[in-house]
Fold this sequence. Notes:
By secondary structure, chain A is mainly α. Chain A contains 22 helices and no strands. Chain B has a five-stranded mixed sheet. By secondary structure, chain B is mostly beta strands. The chains are: A mainly alpha, B mainly beta. Chains A and B meet through helix 2, helix 8, helix 10, helix 18 and helix 19 of A and helix 1 and strand 12 of B.
Amino acid sequence: MARGKNAPSKPPQKLHRGLLVLLVLAAGAFVVLLPWRQRMLAEAERLERVAAAGRAQEQRLRSLEAELEKARQEARSRPDSFDARFRLARMAADAGLIQEAAPHARDAARLRPRDVEAQLLLAEVERRSRRYYEAVRAFKQALRTEPGNPRALAGLASLYVTFGWPLEAERLLEPAVRANPDDLGLKVALALACLQHENYGAAERLLQEVRRRAPDEVRLWSPLVHLYNEARRHREAAAAADEVLAKAPGELAVRNERAIAQFRMDQHAAAIQDFKQVLAAQPGDLTAHYYLGLCYERTGQVQDAVRELEQVHQLRPDYLQTRAILGRLYLRAGREAEGRRLLAEYARAEARSQRHLRVSYNLAGKPDSADAHWQRALAYREAGDTPHMILELRRTLELDPAHARARRLLQSTPPAQAGSPAASGTP
Amino acid sequence: MKAAPTDCARRLLLAALPALCAGCQSTSSARTRQPPATAALPPAAVRFTDITQQAGIRFRHENAKTPVKYMLETMGSGGGFIDYDGDGWHDIVLMNGTAIPGSKVQGRPTLRLYRNNHDLTFTDVTNEAGLAVPGMYAMGCAVGDYDNDGREDLYVTCVLGPSRLFHNLGARFHDVTARAGVDNASRWGASSAWVDYDKDGLLDLFVCNYVKFKSLADHRPCYAGDRKPVYCAPSAYDTVRCTLYRNLGGGRFRDVTMESGIGNSQGKSLGVTVWDCDDDTWPDLFVANDTTAGYLFHNLGNGKFSEIGLEAGVAFDEEGNAHSGMGIDCDDIHNDGQATLVITNFWAEQTSVYRQAGPNEFHNDQSRTTVGPATSEVLGFGIMFLDFDNDGWKDILQVNGHVQDDVQEREPQITHEQQSLLFRNMRNGTFTEVGRASGRPFTDRIVGRGCAWADVDHDGRVDALVTTNGGPALLWRNETQNPGRWLALRLVGARSPRSGIGALVIARSATLRQRTLVRSGSSYLSASALEARFGLGPDEKADLEVRWPSGTVDRVPGVRAGRIWTLREGSGVVK
C-alpha cells in the first residue's frame, strides 16, 4: 500500500530532478557566459552611445549647413565686404570647417587690419590650421591695436603654453595681470603658464584667488583640479572637482581629472564610473579611454583594458605610453608577437622622445636663444611634426636672422598642411 | 525588456554563489599566506637613536654650492660600511665633494673613513688610511674584495673627474685606478656594485652613469618661473650608458660595456641592485633610471645581458611613465620565494613596489603594500630592506629630501628637508609606516640621500648609516626593545669571490623560511654590510643553506641564534 500510495508521486520527483539538473546546468552555463555577455552588453551600449552622439552631431551640422550656405552666398555676392567675409569665416570655423574658414578669415583681417575681432578670429583659425607662427602674428597684431585686450593676451599666452614656451607666456601676462588686477581670466591664463613651468605654488595662489573672488564661476577656476593632479595632491583634486561638478556637471575635462585622481587613489569603481560618463557624452575622449584602460588593468580586467587602450593606440599611435602598457598587456594575454613588437616600438620611440624632451626643457628656460629654438626645430623634424618645426624655424630666424641653416631648412620645407585638427582629449 | 534577464541573471547568480564561494575559499586561503607563529608575538617597540655625535662622527658633506646651481651639487652623496682593517667590525666611509668654481669651500674636503672602536665610538683614520685624496667630487661607493686577498676594497664613483679604485693593502689604501683601468672615463658615476656576472670567481664592476656631464662646461642653466636659477631636471641632459668592467685578474679590468650588451641601453641611471630574477643562478641587474625607462639587465650566462625591463614590467609606473628612479633594492621580503623590488621616486610620484609573479615577471604592488600612498609627499632617495625588529620579515627604511634647496619659496607645502620613513612588514603583503613612533631620526627632517645597514655594535640589531646633501652623515643606532632572535653569516669564498658576494643564503627555522643574496650595491650611492642577516623571531636556531656562485652548496643544520657566524666555501661548518 505504501508503495502504491507513493507510486503516483514518482514521475513528478523524476521531473523535479530533471528540472533541477537542467536549472543547475543553465545556471552553470550562465555563470560561464556571464562575463562574455556583460562585455557584449557593454560593447552594445558603447556603440549605441557613439551612434547617438553621431546622430546629434549630424542634426547640428544640418542646421548649421543651412545658415552657412546663406553666408557663402552673401560672401560670393559681396566679395569686398568685410562683414560677409568675417561672418562666413566665423560660421565655418564654428562648424569645424577650418580649411574653408581660413581664406575668408585672412581676407577679413586684410580688409580691416586694425579690427581686433578679425585678428582674433584669424588667430584662432590659423592655430587650428596648425599655422602656429601666423596665429602668433595675428594675436600680436590684435595686441598692437589694443594692447590690453584680455582675449588676445590670454589667447597668445595659451598658445605659448602649448608651444612649451611658458616663460614667454609669463612675460606677456605678468604686466597685464598687474595692470588689470580684476581680470580673472588673465589670472587663470598666467596660472596655466606657471603650471606648465611646474611652478605649482604660483599657479595655486592665482587660481585660489580666482576661486575666492568668483566661487560660482567654477569653469574659470577649474584648472585648479588639473593643478592638484599635476602636483599629485589627489585628495584636493577630487575635492575641487566635486565642487566644480556640483555646479557644472557637464564639465567633462574636470570629470576626467576627478577620475584620474580617483584612479591614483585606488578608487577604481568611482573612477570607472566617471570615465564611462565622459565617454557617454564624448565617445572619442582619449584621456577617458586611456585611464579607463588603466583602471581595468589595475582591477585585473585585462580584455577590457586591452579594448580601451587599443582604441587610444588606434587614434593616437604616437602616444608613447599606450605602447608600453598595451605591449605588456598583450604579453600577459599571451599575444607574444604583438606585445614584443609594441614594446620594441616603445623603446625606439622613447629614445627619440628623450631627445625631444631635452631640447624642450632647455628651450623652456631659454626662450630667447635662437639655438634652443633651432634644436627644437630639429627635434620636431625628427618627429615628423612639420607645423611645429616651421614655427620653431621662424622663431629661430626672428632671434637670429643670419641663421643660415634654419633659413635653408625653412625654404626646403613645403608649407604645413592646413586643417588637420588634433584629436580630442589628448591623454 | 532588458531588466528582466538581468534580474533573472542576478537571482541565478545569487543562487549559485554558495557553490562558487566554496571554490573561492580554498583558492584564497591558498593564496593568502597564514601568519606564522611569530605573528602571535607582540610587535617590538621600534626605536632608533641618532648617535652620530657621541660616536665621534664629525662629517659634513661639502656639496660646494654655487649661485650657478650645477646639478651635481644636489645629487650627492653616499657612504657605506667597510671592514677596512679586517677586525670584524664595520667601519664607515663617507663620500665628499670638492671645491668647484664659484663655491665657497673652506679647507680641502675629502672623503672620510671612520674606524669602529668596538664601543659605539669611531675614530677618523682617513689620513692614515690614505684616503685623504683632494680634488675628487665623490658620489657613491661600492665595497668588495676584487682581488680575493681577504681585504675589502673600495670603489668610489665621481663626477667631474675619474672614478677611483682604492686597493686595500691592510688598513691602508692605494689608488690603483689607472692600473686597473676603471676610471669610468670621467663620466658622472652614481651608484655602483661589485658583481661576479660571469661566475669566474672574480668580482666585476657595474657602474651607473647619470647624465652626459663630464665637466662644468656641460652645465645648462635652468630657471624657475620666477627666473631664478634652479637645479636642472635630468631632462636637460643627454642619456648615457652604464659601464661594466670585467675583472681579468691580476688587478686589471676590461670595459665590456658594449660587448656585454649593457651598452645597448642609454638612460639616466642612479641606482643598481643585484638579484637572480629567474633562479638560473646568474646574477641579474635592476637599474633605477631618473626619468627614463628602468632596466632589468637579464644575465644570459654567456657574458651577455639582455635588457628586459619593459617585458618584465619594471620599466615604468602604472600610467606608463618612466620613474624618477633614485634608490633601489630587491629581496625576498615576503618569504615566499618571490622577489620584491622597490624604487624611490620624485615628490608626489610615490615609491614604486613591484612583486615578482614569475621568472622575470613583475607586477606593480605599490598600492596594495600601502608603501606607495605613504610615500606621496616625499622625494625619495636611499631605500633599503632590513629587518629592524628581527621578526623574520624584512622592513623598509627610506630617506628623503628635495633636490631644490629653495623649493619652499615656490611651493610652500614642500620642504627641502624631509622626514625619513620606516615601514614595518605586516607579514601579509602590506606595510605600516612606523617612523613617527620610532625616535627622532624619523621625526627630524633631513636632506636625505644615501642609506646603508650594518650592525655596528654586534648587538644583533641592524643599525643605519644615512648620508645627507650638504649636511652631516648620521648614524642611527637600532635600540628596538624585545626584538626577535637573529643570526648573521659572513662568507669566505674559495672558488667564488672571497667576500661572499653572489651567494644565495637560505635560512629555515621552526616558523620561517627566508633567503637573501649577499651583494654589493642597492639603495642610493651606498654600501651596506657584506653579510647575510636573518631575524628569527622566537626561533632558536636555523638550518642554513648557502648556494655559492661557483655551484658549491654548503648546508649547515641547527645554527644557533644570537651570533655572527663565518662560513668558508665548501667547509660545511660555521665558526
